[in-house]
Amino acid sequence: MTLPRLNVYRHDRGARALVTLAGVIDPVTAPRVRAALEQCLRDGITLIDVDLTTVDRCDDSGLRVFLDVSEHAAEAQAFLLLHHPSPQTERLLMDTGSDGLLYPMRPGGARPQRA
Description:
The protein is of the alpha/beta class. The protein has four helices and four strands; from the N terminus they run ββαβαβαα.
């Protein structure tokens, strides 16, 4: 039996959703992430908190999903916030200039600074 490469958990509280991702975000799993986040918007969620604490790796296909959903959220007067990205994911966000769009947060609420 093979284990899934990515698990997606969602917990709603009113118009806010916490989406916890666990595993790897790559071209195979990115469509699951997109579907889960877009469903939040269809359900009327206006603040989507994405917990990346247990994401082992996120490549550019995951980044594309976050950028697209962030844009769709803004069009719906909603927000997508990334929390606790790994150092690798944080570098990906910063290297592509996406850190300001996605508001990655470190534990304690501090935002990473550009080098």
